[in-house]
Amino acid sequence: MTIRELKEIHEQKYLHPLAAKSAETRGRKYPSEKCDIRTEFQKDRDRITHCKAFRRLMHKTQVFISPEGDHYRTRLTHTLEVSQIARTIALALNLNEDLTEAIALGHDLGHTPFGHAGEDALNEFLPQGFRHNEQSLRVVEFLENDGNGLNLTFEVLDGILNHRTRCKPSTLEGQIVRISDKIAYMNHDVDDAIRAKILATDDLPPFSRFGSTASKRIDFMVRNLVENSAGKSEINFTPEIKIATREMRAFLNMHVYANQRLHQRERSKIQTMLRLLFDHYVQNPDNLPSELRLRMAGDAVQAAADYIAGMTDRFAMKCFSEIFMPSAWEVESKI
Asked: How far apart are CA 101 and CA 41, in angstroms?
């Protein structure tokens, strides 16, 4: 009996009856040989962590645009924080930790450069709009692995697509990631806003009832979620805390996301830059990577959107500089 088979037996025997079991996955789009060591969900986790889009998260803005400092969150650190929170909850509820981790690690792969400003810009440019959860699905289904995608299981794809607030994942593990994403960014974005002197500790009345620090608030929210969700078919806070989290999100929208002096000042620059890049690639599709052009079969608009959405902050600025800024030149002098 293989290590994987022993793991599958352990899941069947010890995980909660409502937990997703790797041996019962709804499968992949294309047949894939089973691993002797890893379960299907563990294979998905590894495919995500080894893909190019995951590595690029390191240089993508979380909220604050081009911050000067080493301790501000990036998309990668946010993703890792979500993964750790989600795994803690899954373990406490006796649900599938491997599936939870895979969904968490893949949930933000489709995010644009420059955080919310980049996503809003692409949303304006595209006729069908832009939503990062749908782009994350495009990344793992279509764009990664030279256009072959990562061929992930249904459960991981479903969790990635449905991690936004308005969505409802089909597994409890997906529901955990959806809420863990909110727990992470609500607390850590406040931490970064205080570091950036956009907020002061005294400005946080909606947060104070959960604790005086980010770690205490996260601990409080995780405990409430675990205690209220144990043995149930839905993962959620108690009604009182659910209302309080909505107040916290509204506070962030008003005082951080929509009210950053620096963010507002730089936002128009970013939108102008991405608009010029987008128009350039639509009008000059030959300047796109050849593999992307071939896969899009003449759809220059989608190809340009995929290319820009995959850029890191610094690569977008490099492309803009190379295309639109004059280069230094020299006149050969005669002796």
From this structure: 9
CA distance 270 to 277: 10
Residue 334: pLDDT band (50, 70, 90) is low
- Per-residue pLDDT tens digits for 89-136: 999 999 999 999 999 999 999 999 998 889 999 999 898 999 999 999
The mean-pLDDT minimum among 54-58, 141-145, 294-298 falls in 294-298
Residues 6+ apart with CB under 8 A from 114: 60, 61, 65, 121, 270, 274, 313, 316
Residue type, 247: E
> So what's the pLDDT on residue 38?
98
Whether pLDDT at 86 is above 90: yes
Q: Which CATH number fits domain 3-26+48-312: 1.10.3210.10, 1.10.357.140, 2.60.40.10, 3.40.630.30?
A: 1.10.3210.10
- What is the spatial distance between Cα 66 and Cα 326, in angstroms, rounded to a whole number? 23
Handedness of CA 161, 5, 85, 237 (dihedral sign): positive
At 332, the pLDDT band (50, 70, 90 cuts) reads: low
Q: How many of the other CB atoms lie within 10 Å of CB of 15? A: 18
pTM for the model:
0.93
Kindly state the tokens that stand for 272: 């102008």
Selection from 134, 106, 135 nearest residue 48 by Cα: 106
Q: How far apart are CA 275 and CA 279, in angstroms?
A: 6
Measured CA distances, 53 to 135, 136, 174, 186, 202 (Å) = 11, 9, 21, 24, 38
Q: What is the pLDDT of residue 259?
A: 61
